[in-house]
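User: I'm designing a mutation panel for Endonuclease/exonuclease/phosphatase family protein and want to avoid disrupting the core. Could you give me a predicted structure to guide residue selection? Please restate the sequence first so the numbering is unambiguous.

Assistant: Good idea. Sequence first, for numbering, then the predicted structure tokens:
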Amino acid sequence: MTDPQASAPAITVMTVNIHKGFTTFNRRFILPELRDAVRTVGADVVFLQEVMGTNGHHAKAEAVDEPHYEFLADEIWPQYAYGRNVVYPRGHHGNAVMSKFPIVHHANHDVSMPGPEKRGLLHCVLEVPGHAQHLHAICVHLGLAESHRQQQLELLCEMVRGEVPADAPLIVAGDFNDWRRRAHEVLERGAGLHEVFVSAYGESARTFPARFPLLSLDRIYVRNASVHLPVVLPRRPWSHLSDHAPLAAEIHL
């Protein structure tokens, strides 16, 4: 008898910080262009950061009535989850996961540190056809301060140990703001996670600023999964759609 998991196809994932649907410095609202670009990647699971959940914070955002993650998901990703992190008088934004597979559970974990920055970890549990075990996906957006990031990384490891079975496939992706590249050791030691570009090429990808990437801020980490040829998506059209270059990878569970 053939093992269904052995013949199950790989899944494609991507991660991108969409900057609330605006170009750098909020000069132009480009969410419709972003949707077209995300669609062309053909990813099965998309990790999004800085997603508007309720419009009104920017007047131009009123050009799209529904929450931005719903607009992006449209008919391509029938399942999505949103974690609200930042709330202001006329709206809020946070992280989102869009999936072609059923999301059977999701929870947003507040990992904000004292101060104005509000951050969260959105944990989704996905049911992937052909796989007996659920896939766990965590969308991450960490703080700008080094001391805050270190605490948030420890909270992420604690959450993985407490909520993700040791033998379950796990993908952690997003904007880590880890320009000093200190997250690798913490996540490997504390949660058994390996960064896909480090595994494939020896170092994490440079993603910021998107036009001339110098810093390695965006990451994809996996556990109990293998990765084939992770890529930084090309500057055209992405360099004018986000200040972060998106990442994509083929994941074998």
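For picking mutation sites, this is relevant: The first helix runs from residue 4 to 7. The first strand starts at residue 11 and ends at 17.
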